[in-house]
Amino acid sequence: MTVPSEKWPKMTGRDEFRFLSDLIFTRSSGDHTMVSLRDHHAGTTRFANNQIIQNVDARRGILTVTVAFDRRHGSASTTDFTAGSIQDMLTRAERIARVSPADPEYLPPPDPCLFPIRETAKSETVAAGPVKRLEYANEAIGHCRMENLMAAGVVSSSGTAVGIAADNGLFGYEYRADAGFSLTVQAGDATGWSAAAHRSIDHLKVQERTLAAIAKAKRGRDACELPAGHYPVILEPAAVAGLWTWLIWSLDAKSYVKGTSPFVGKLGQLVVDERLTLRNHPDHTDLLGEGMTHEGLPSTPSVWIDHGVLKQLAYDRFTAKAEGIHTIPTLEAPVLSLDGLSLHSVQDLIKNTERAILVSNFWYIRPVNPRDLMLTGMTRDGTFLVEKGEIVSPVKNFRFHESPLRAFQHLSAWTAPMEAVNSETRKMLVPAVALPHFYFSSVTRF
Amino acid sequence: MEKVKAPAVEAGQYDLVLDPEHLSLTIHESCGHPSELDRALGYEANYAGTSFLTTEKRGNFRYGSRYVNLVADNTEPETLAATGFDDDGVQCQRWDIVRDGIFVGYCTNREVAPKIGESRSRGSNRADGWENIPIVRIANIGLEPGSATVEQLIADVKWGIYIEGHGSYSIDQRRYNFQFGGDAFWLIENGRRTHMLRDVIYHGITPEFWNSCDGVGDRSFRRRYGFITCGKGQPGQSGWMTHAASPARFRRVHVIRGEGS
């Protein structure tokens, strides 16, 4: 793993975290004591109306201790890592624990383990500062100015030291770097959008994504209105990620056990098209894989949906123990893929389509009915009518009512997994897909 | 038990009587966010969205009916945005957002207020912690009370639905096209609440919806509800504010069924 930058601000290192956690364990009177670290240094450059509107750099280190007496536990935090403040934090946690009721779901810290070592720290991202971010922002703004369009967006870079330790010997430390870019290009009422997230700031592909967003915005002008109803659709990766994020959130095991999950009774059964597989791939260089979770569990590769069959649920430790699950799978680096021949690009999907609505992205997806995972939301940043293998017209945005469990029962065509992220999703690799049926319930009128 | 066994709603046009808790979310999404001036100026175009309440509409746009008065009040004691002074150091104030149905005012900070010719910020600049930059935030915006009782609001409804609480919600990036659910629903027939319904979703266009308002309950029915997870800004921040309302009646609103819709 890359060593964190020694430049200011110096982030909390592995040895320093071990020293701090050992100090806490020595002084704690609890039956169990657990310490977590999140030392975050982030810079954000935002722009709108073709100019910079915000350029901030913040460092926030936070140490949290959880002390338990039997099943009564209390937590306290501090941003001051001096000995006196740490003692004060520990005293507060002990005091809270003593007056708290017993938590029937409390579990002692996980057993010590060897956490996998992942390439989470990219030196180019750690070293990036406001100058690099400004360079990328300027690139996006410059391209838009040349086209007489308006750019709004963000470039961000951050480094985070993450640690977890317990008095039973559990110890993990990881340094994570993240970079992000997103851009909305406005051409009158039309907008185009693109976004990227990566461990390496050098992999944001700012120029390529800016040109894509500009092309979308220009093509979206003078949208016509189509009636609401059922349509075949081509969903670009960001739109697929938006729907699958809600599907993934619904894999919660506690809801499954309680009977409120849309997957109740479906573990081990076909839930989507049998060519679809969802797996966790934390070692993939384009994903944001991690070595450990905030609970102190190792992150490992795992298969969640295997050829359409639901194989895993997302367990908290208590539910896992109650259900006899010994290895808790994680899903921080999702890859959705399909068996069979995939097309090369979205453009190829368009060429192979007789008639469909092309959706660039969705906005404000929210559940309507969690029991069948009925979702609503709107298309945004480029919605087009495709006929006979070509985009023939931009169309006004639609509101949809659809369950991904229903929409992804059968896919007509797809690409290989591609990078996808939007304003409400974590980074994923998902295909662009063609679906034969998708329900748009109303037209979004501006 | 009645809620569990309630029949699903039939899609169609209904008059709606909305309780204060339900209205607090409707106000937040369809009035609070579009009245943030930074949105209207395009600052949030890439993330939280923009606003259909563009600056040329201030002072002349009919946002709602004459019954609709939406007031920002960051001076009301025990409300979440009543912080004394905002993070610009500007004293908290009370001002009109919508007066007699006309859109008249924005939530502003010192950065954006001069851009629309205002000499003073409205004092709505807040950060959620020391490490984040203050941004324009929704004030304590509330629907001013009218003169009706809840019974009177319901009595004048032949075919409608009474809605309590929060449910599903989704609104476009300009805060113009919306859809809301709720927590509990009662069918109103010929001026009486008859039985509960389930899976009620209503949708509409923000100014059309507020222009369909033809009655607001009196001050004795006014209730306040706090919001503490209003997401905005990059890096993301949580905003705090209170929205107060008395029950209000809206005519001929489009209702659909949520389940299997």
Describe the structure.
The complex is a heterodimer of chains A (446) and B (261). Chain A is an alpha+beta fold and 446 residues long. Chain A is 23% helix and 38% strand. Chain A has a six-stranded antiparallel sheet with strand order 3-2-1-4-5-6. In chain A, strands 7-12-13-15-19 form a five-stranded mixed β-barrel. Chain A has a four-stranded antiparallel sheet with strand order 10-9-8-11, with no helix packed on it. The radius of gyration of chain A is 24 Å and the shape is globular. The N and C termini of chain A lie far apart (50 Å). Helices cover 13% and strands 35% of the residues of chain B. Chain B is mainly beta and 261 residues long. The longest helix of chain B is centred in the N-terminal third of the chain and has 13 residues, at 20-32. In chain B, a hairpin with a 5-residue loop joins β10 (169-171) and β11. The A-B interface holds A 42, 44, 46, 48-49, 53-54, 56, 58-60, 150, 152-154, 156, 182-184, 186, 191, 193, 363-369, 371-372, 374, 376-378, 380, 397, 399, 401, 423, 439, 441-442, 444-446 and B 41-47, 49, 52, 131-133, 168-174, 176-177, 179, 181, 199, 201, 203, 205, 234-235, 256, 258-261.
Which properties best describe this structure?
heterodimer, A: alpha+beta, six-stranded antiparallel beta sheet, 10 helices, B: 261 residues, nine-stranded mixed beta sheet, five-stranded antiparallel beta sheet, 13% helix
Q: Care to count the β-strands of chain A?
A: 19
Number of β-strand runs of chain B: 18
Portion of residues within helices of chain A: 10-25%
Secondary structure category of chain B: mainly beta
